[in-house]
Write a structure and sequence with these properties.
heterotrimer; A alpha+beta (247); B mainly alpha (459); C mainly alpha (462); A: 247 residues; alpha+beta; two-stranded antiparallel sheet; 10 strands; 22% helix; B: 459 residues; mainly alpha; Formate dehydrogenase/DMSO reductase fold; 17 helices; 2 strands
Chain lengths: 247, 459, 462
């Protein structure tokens, strides 16, 4: 096993629920960036869609006084991930940059990690993914296309991170704040998703993660210690919709 | 009261070797039928491997379904062997003797079947060997020993090895008998297998010591196997319906319940098919049914405590899971069926002596138990996943597909076919145990009544 | 075959007449100055215990939970040892075991100690924190039931268990009491006349007696599990917020069986060694009991580990806190003691047949196991009762352990003395070895020879 080394990086994300409008731009960006298979009508019917980041929508209040509440959920990159110890072949493990990494080559498809994951953010390739001819050239060459029988999940756009890190190493410096954005945070029109290095105390994401509104999904119950920090809605106490997921 | 007749040894040999030496007429047809189901299963598995697991009914978040249920079911059945031959041997229950071999055999074949299900269930079965063997010594990549899925093959492999040895050691004297009664290639085969068994006192002593030692050593394995299988579920904190501390003993006692019931089913079939009325007698069914009443009641108590404490925290998602499991159609129907078949119908019936002594009724009630026990595992595996955590947005449901049913049918056919193949070459009822039983059981006159009695060696 | 069995050359078991003479006028039960002195000393200790109890109330009152952990541990311990022991007269009977007969009565005599358990459980009702406090309902197995439910049901359970135990003891000693009525003397005979006025051993009487014992045994078993589930969850489990452990009541019940077997072994040893019952209790009983003890000691660890691995593996905050509270943190000393005395030492010794097949080995280990059970109960009860803020959702702070004060030690001494007092008191009336079981065992089994080896022929009636 790779020994844990100190790394200057601890990649994390802040999700500001207050800013999320539920527009699904992040979902689309992620789908395109990471060669996520197409969610066809059949897949929906089979309850097998892929959505590395998803917007959960909850209704609050009774008609006609109804409000929609949105919460984007992606892999929480848990520091104490329930999915990691259960994998028999180390196909998922924790790297020294705070990320929960999936190795497609090593995966044998026991799907145990998906059961262990309390956030429902792991996806299994039940079928061999196919793209129509017109979309073949759209596939991202930096990202592996997964075959049938393996698990996949949000990678925090690891290919972007690696590219930036390589570049920084060449210039003998650390990756600067704002140099990398994940596809979802890049696409977010309201800036609800902020990506960055939590080890860098001056980075935007570290500052935001110390906001009074911050909370982590299911952390107090399961102790998963996620690297994704949520900021609660402003105008009222977090209850009902978001809190239902907050647990 | 003693229903058994005193038979001489020649008669015992003749009757018990009727499966191995003179094949009954139905044997060929039964094997052919079961064999075709087995082949169908292999074909279906081939299709599944080719197309991907999409051909099953699995989804997100129900990533585990009928395959894992059937895996747990067969591991449960495998507990029959040790329960009958080791525990009853150590507690010196005389009535165990005619069923020891069949129970052991059921253990071996059901373990083989159980072991194949994780492979069937995996996304890339051709790479499954990575589970058990390190695949890259040079880079120091080893299987993750923290994963219960690595504990599983270790536990089941040990159990399989032990059971096979146990079966073989108990088979040795009978192989000697068969060697002396056959000619040609069969003679050579039995001769090689019997390892020079002559039946001299030293060999008998070694054989007995090996049997007792193996029984004692197998007991911890017996307990650990199903405990480890239960920990596949119990150590997952993210799934409320699984994360229960009671699972290990609960699963073990449930396994004994289903395993011993399977032995009852098998005994009835053996009595009917090979006409071994002299050896498998109503008194054996009676004793097994008494044992089953105790086991089933204990198991039911564990079920109740498990449910009580899973509701204990009264958390919303826990309630949602129980609501689905117990009150939503079709799960509610399955749940009621599970309670009725797993406990209420059979145990109520077994309370009556006339039921315990009726082979037909025992046959059907034991089948009911195993329907119930399969449903129990199913109701633990699936609704727990379908109602996992408070993310109601992704809660789901599950229905097994044709492929999954086909492979379940395959598993039953595979076990039965193997049993029949074994019975073609080896006696299903141990000859020497039956002869020993004739010595160890006797009768005793007290006043005007005669009661069955057993001999106990003084220490 | 059967005809090769011949009668043994000699049969040195006590005859009917000898057994009747020995047991009806048993030596240990006869009044003597030694036994009077024993009762006086034990009585003094019991008074010491009562003094300790009164002083405890005076010092700490009934509301300070931390002060009462050791008291709960005592009740839990009594419920485990004395409550578990009668099970031994039930389980092996189902397997038609013959060896159990001489110690059947000993195991049932422990039901008499239940009187002490019942008395000691009454103050528990006053110190049990209310279910609903300031409109906040704490987690319990009672969910939405009225607030007095735990008190009522726990009382029903414990008193019911004691009542059934005493009824079982009485029913199974009726034939012996009848023998004392006919052949005894003095005050014992008067008592026997009162307790078994009509039994003369007709076929019908025996049949109804057998049914009665069977029904009471089944009820005892069910009530024992019921009582342990209620006691373990109300007095220990529910007091630790965030603690959710489904196996815990079963663990409590199982360790109770282990401690019960240990109690019976110890009592049998004393009766064999000091009270002159060596013709009735022998190596065969101790050997078989030791095997059972070995199995139960292994199960101790199994049940403990089933919970531990789930808590340890899941690493959720509340589970880590619970492990810290009971196993690694302030109660490490009690946990290690329980682990060693209830599991590791018994396992590594009882696995050897030469130890099992001795009189002294299992007896010493029984004492060790009883001590281990005591430490285990202290670990659980003291740990649970030290917790502050039982209405929280999770255990926030792992409390320091509580050390026993002088009054706790007084109460401990009083408890042990009271148990011994009650046990000796009933043996003055009821023979500690059952006469009718011995007689029946003599009828149903006999020594014989098979070819040249000595065997025992044991009848297995339906």
């Amino acid at each position: 096993m790779v020994t844990q080394q100190d790394s200057p990086y601890n990649w994390g994300m802040v999700v500001d629920i207050d800013r999320c409008t539920g527009c699904q731009a992040c979902v689309l960006a992620c789908q395109v960036e990471n060669n996520v298979p197409l969610n066809t009508e059949n897949l929906y019917k089979q309850q097998r869609i892929y959505s590395w980041i998803r917007i959960e929508r909850y209704w609050e209040g009774d008609f006609p006084d109804v409000k929609a509440r949105f919460i984007p959920i992606l892999c929480q990159q848990c520091g104490n991930a329930p999915c990691e110890p259960v994998c028999p072949v180390y196909a998922t493990y924790h790297n020294n940059e705070g990320m929960n990494v999936q190795i497609y080559n090593r995966c044998v498809g026991t799907r145990y990690c998906a059961n262990g994951c309390p956030y429902h953010v792991r996806f299994f390739n039940y079928w061999e993914p196919v793209w129509p001819e017109s979309l073949r050239n759209q596939l991202n060459p930096d990202v592996t296309v997964r075959s049938r029988g393996v698990m996949e999940k949000c990678s925090f756009c690891v290919h972007r991170i690696r590219r930036a890190e390589r570049k920084a190493r060449g210039e003998d410096r650390l990756v600067m704040d704002g140099e990398i954005q994940s596809a979802c945070s890049q696409a977010c029109p309201t800036d609800a998703l902020v990506f960055g290095n939590l080890n860098d105390l001056t980075s935007r994401v570290s500052k935001m993660s110390k906001d009074d509104r911050h909370y982590k999904l299911l952390d107090d119950k399961l102790g998963t210690d996620p690297n994704v920090v949520y900021l609660a809605r402003v105008e009222e106490k977090v209850e009902e919709g978001a809190a239902a997921a907050h647990g | 009261m003693q229903q058994g007749r005193q038979l001489d040894e020649i008669r015992i040999n003749k009757e018990l070797l009727n499966g191995a030496l003179e094949t009954p007429g139905w044997w060929k047809w039964a094997v052919l039928l079961l064999g075709s189901v087995v082949i169908m299963g292999v074909v279906v598995f081939g299709i599944q491997t080719n197309k991907g697991l999409g051909v099953t009914g699995l989804s997100r978040p129900v990533f585990w379904g009928a395959y894992i249920t059937t895996f747990v079911f067969w591991v449960g059945i495998s507990h029959a062997g040790i329960m009958i031959s080791a525990i009853l041997r150590l507690t010196q229950a005389e009535w165990r003797r005619p069923v020891t071999r069949a129970a052991e055999l059921l253990t071996v074949f059901s373990l083989l079947t159980a072991l194949s299900f994780p492979v069937i269930h995996a996304g890339r079965p051709w790479r499954i060997i990575y589970w058990i063997f390190p695949y890259d010594f040079a880079r120091g990549l080893w299987p993750n020993v923290r994963s219960p899925l690595v504990w599983d093959p270790a536990a089941i492999g040990t159990y399989l090895t032990g059971s096979t040895l146990f079966l073989y050691v108990a088979l040795l004297p009978d192989l000697g008998v068969l060697r002396d009664r056959t000619t040609g290639w069969k003679h050579a085969m039995y001769g090689a297998l019997s390892l020079g068994w002559r039946g001299n006192p030293r060999q008998w002593r070694l054989q007995t010591v090996a049997g007792v030692l193996l029984s004692a050593l197998m007991l911890p394995i017996f307990v650990s196997v199903h405990s480890i299988v239960s920990w596949d579920f119990a150590v997952t904190p993210g799934v409320e319906g699984w994360n229960s501390t009671i699972f290990a003993p609960y699963f073990v006692i449930g396994a004994v319940h289903s395993g011993v019931s399977a032995v009852v089913t098998m005994m009835a079939l053996m009595r009917w098919l090979w006409k071994w009325d002299n050896f498998i007698r109503p008194e054996h069914f009676d004793a097994l049914a008494r044992l089953l009443i105790v086991v089933a009641t204990a198991w039911f108590g564990f079920t109740m405590v498990e449910m009580l404490f899973s509701l204990y925290s009264l958390e919303a998602q826990e309630l949602a899971f129980r609501d689905m499991q117990m009150f939503q159609w079709p799960w509610a129907g399955l749940f009621i069926l599970f309670l009725l078949t797993g406990f209420f119908i059979p145990v109520t019936m077994w309370l009556f002596k006339s039921v315990r002594n009726s082979i037909v009724l025992m046959f059907w009630t034991s089948i009911l138990v195993n329907i119930g026990m399969w449903l129990e595992r199913f109701l633990i595996v699936v609704p727990s996943l379908a109602r996992k955590q408070p993310f109601v947005y992704t809660w789901g449901s599950y229905q097994p597909s044709f492929v999954e049913f086909a492979l379940m049918a395959w598993s039953f056919a595979f076990v039965s076919m193997n049993m029949l193949l074994f019975a073609r070459f080896f006696p299903l009822i141990p000859l020497f145990e039956s002869k020993e039983s004739q010595i160890f059981t006797t009768e005793m006159k007290i006043g005007r009544t005669t009661i069955p009695a057993v001999l106990r060696e003084q220490e | 075959m059967a005809s090769r069995i011949t009668a043994a050359a000699h049969d040195d078991r006590p005859t009917f007449e000898e057994a009747a003479a020995d047991l009806v006028n048993a030596k240990s039960t006869a009044t003597s100055s030694a036994s009077t002195r024993a009762f006086l000393i034990l009585g003094a200790f019991v008074i010491l215990g009562v003094v300790g109890f009164v002083m405890k109330i005076a010092d700490d009152g009934l509301d300070d939970r931390r002060a009462w952990g050791y008291y709960v541990a005592m009740v839990s311990f009594l419920l485990s040892t004395a409550g578990g022991a009668p099970m031994l007269s039930i389980a092996p009977v189902l397997a038609k075991a013959n060896w159990i007969r001489p110690v059947m009565r000993i195991s049932q005599l422990f039901a008499a100690i239940g009187v002490l358990t019942a008395i000691m459980s009454i103050p528990l009702l006053f110190i049990l924190p209310p279910l609903v406090e300031d409109e906040v309902r704490r987690r319990s197995i009672w969910f939405g039931s009225p607030a007095y439910f735990p008190h009522i049901w726990d009382t029903i359970a414990i008193f019911g268990l004691v009542f059934i135990g005493l009824a079982l003891l009485w029913s199974s000693s009726i034939p012996d009491l009848a023998a004392i009525r006919e052949g005894g003397s003095g005050r014992r005979q008067a008592w026997a006349r009162r307790l078994a006025p009509t039994f003369i051993g007709t076929w019908g009487q025996w049949k109804s007696l057998r049914i009665r014992i069977g029904v009471l045994s089944a009820f005892y078993f069910l009530f024992l599990i019921f009582t342990h589930v209620l006691f373990a969850s109300d007095y220990i489990h529910a007091l630790v917020p965030g603690y959710k452990d489904a196996i815990f009541p079963m663990y409590h019940a199982l360790t109770s069986l282990q401690a019960g077997v240990a109690s019976v072994i110890l009592a049998s040893y004393f009766l064999w060694r000091y009270a002159g019952y060596n013709r009735y209790i022998g190596i065969n009983q101790i050997w078989n009991l030791a095997k059972l003890q070995f199995a139960l000691s292994l199960l101790w660890f199994y049940f403990f580990f089933s919970a531990f691995i789930v808590f340890w593996y899941s690493r959720t905050p509340q589970n880590e806190k619970v492990i810290e509270l009971f196993d690694q943190g302030p109660h490490l000393w009690a946990f290690l003691g329980a682990l060693f005395f209830s599991f590791i030492i018994p396992m590594w010794t009882l696995m050897w047949n030469f130890i099992r097949v001795s009189m002294r080995g299992p007896a010493i280990l029984a004492a060790v196991i009883i001590f281990g059970t005591l430490l285990d109960r202290i670990r659980l009860a003291v740990g649970a009762w030290a917790v502050e803020g039982i209405n929280d959702k999770f255990l926030q702070v792992v409390p320091e352990t509580v050390w026993p004060d002088l009054w706790d030690i007084f109460m401990f001494l009083g408890m042990f003395a009271g148990a011994a007092f009650l046990f000796l008191l009933v043996t003055r009336l009821i023979p500690p070895v059952s006469l009718w079981e011995i007689q029946q065992s003599r009828l149903i089994s006999k020594p014989g020879m098979y070819m040249r080896s000595e065997v025992e022929i044991v009848g297995k009636p339906d």
